[in-house]
Amino acid sequence: MNIEISGLTRRFGRAQAVAGVDLEAGPGVFGLLGPNGAGKTSLLRMMATVIPPSSGRLRLLGRDPGSQGQRREIRRGLGYLPQTLGYYPGFTVVEFVEYFALLKEVPPARVPAAVASAVERVGLGDRAKAKLRNLSGGMLRRAGIAQAIVNEPRLLLLDEPTAGLDPEQRVTFRTLLRDLGEQATVVVSTHLVEDVGAACGRVALMEKGRIAFDGTPAELISRGVGHGTGDAPLERGYSAVLQQVRS
Ligand SMILES: Nc1ncnc2c1ncn2[C@@H]1O[C@H](COP(=O)(O)OP(=O)(O)OP(=O)(O)O)[C@@H](O)[C@H]1O
């Protein structure tokens, strides 16, 4: 299992962002849904080794992120696209992705090919030499995805990756997600239920720091039959689960 989590919590002062999560995941694309403030980003940040848990057990790629040496090994096999990623405006796309490849300790001889492949996979091949300050918001998001996949991670964590992507790019991106999920564990936090239906084999729905549903998209759809509100079957499943846990 690439992710092994039990009883995981995270507090920020008085706010209980994550309130006891149990989760195991191997390869595949895993969608993380939930309303604003449900705790998705906090959970992803713990899995990305960016913040430590307040309590509970967390093992990533079979290792303990609480140990400095093992954390370093995890980071070599990890890709993370945060909700907001800082960009150096004067960097070109290639320079930006290369910077992350070096941070993630990709062997230097392999860096140029790894960077070219990541840039190509997100459809920025023709903008490889463009400065980041000259890219659109959606293109910047794609550069962010390129840095996340440049080390061919076994654990890929994407926080709202399709925000800002145009419909054509979103469809292309879902194909990339499915490809990546053949080998890696890919966790995608999103507000777009279409992404989940099209690309995820499994979906969890978070509410108030806990997982209120964990199953296949088809199972989530079936929860909404005759219940829930929404225009699409997944939206009805989503709202039915939320109505149930809130009642
Ligand atoms: N750094 C922080 N300091 C204080 N409170 C925080 C911090 N990060 C998150 N929180 C709080 O923790 C809770 C969960 O937030 P989180 O960002 O994890 O939710 P989310 O599901 O990702 O929301 P969204 O869909 O809006 O991105 C919220 O109540 C939020 O205000």
TrEMBL record:
<dbReference type="InterPro" id="IPR003593">
    <property type="entry name" value="AAA+_ATPase"/>
</dbReference>
<comment type="similarity">
    <text>Belongs to the ABC transporter superfamily.</text>
</comment>
<dbReference type="InterPro" id="IPR027417">
    <property type="entry name" value="P-loop_NTPase"/>
</dbReference>
<keyword id="KW-0067">ATP-binding</keyword>
<keyword id="KW-0547">Nucleotide-binding</keyword>
<dbReference type="InterPro" id="IPR003439">
    <property type="entry name" value="ABC_transporter-like_ATP-bd"/>
</dbReference>
<protein>
    <submittedName>
        <fullName>ABC transporter ATP-binding protein</fullName>
    </submittedName>
</protein>
<dbReference type="GO" id="GO:0005524">
    <property type="term" value="F:ATP binding"/>
</dbReference>
<keyword id="KW-0813">Transport</keyword>
<dbReference type="InterPro" id="IPR017871">
    <property type="entry name" value="ABC_transporter-like_CS"/>
</dbReference>
<dbReference type="Pfam" id="PF00005">
    <property type="entry name" value="ABC_tran"/>
</dbReference>
<feature type="domain" description="ABC transporter">
    <location>
        <begin position="3"/>
        <end position="233"/>
    </location>
</feature>
